[in-house]
Design a protein that fits this description.
54% of the residues lie in helices and 0% in strands. The chain is built from 6 helices and no strands. The chain binds zinc ion.
């Protein structure tokens, strides 16, 4: 029997791109006033955002992938073809390696949650029509 979703995959993607809670759509993913602090759970709907046991590695992988694909590799290609020298390549690469993950902190968490719930939409409490799954355990 197909699962009837109250929160559709399209909504999950939209909410992921807008950095809002995948379950309720509230701007509640991050702690107020703190740039690098994910709320452990959505204050509005109770969805557990940090799901424990290595879940935090997902945003790391996204930040790493974006940094390598859009900064490090292009810099290396420019260096290999002699467009920029080795010293600027190292300085720019190091700067990008430090700055991009910090700039992408919120986006990578939001995209990770979007991807997780896109493939597992039945894990959203609103799609289960009842309480948060974490309250049942
Ligand atoms: Zn929520």
């Amino acid at each position: 029997m197909p699962l009837r979703l109250h929160v559709t995959r399209r909504q999950i993607v939209s909410r992921g791109l807008h950095h809002t809670c995948p379950n309720c759509g509230g701007r509640t993913l991050f702690q107020t006033g703190k740039r690098f602090a994910l709320n452990p759970a959505c204050p509005a709907c109770g969805l557990k955002l940090d799901r424990g046991d290595g879940f935090f590695l997902g945003p790391f992988v996204i930040s790493y992938t974006v940094t390598v694909a859009f900064a490090i590799v292009p810099l290396l290609v420019l260096a290999i073809f002699g467009v920029i020298g080795p010293a600027p390549t190292i300085i720019l690469g190091g700067g990008c390696a430090l700055a991009l993950p910090a700039l992408l902190y919120r986006s990578s968490w939001s995209w990770w949650l979007m991807g997780y719930f896109y493939f597992l939409p039945e894990k959203l409490p609103h799609n289960r029509g009842a309480r948060c799954e974490d309250e049942e355990a």
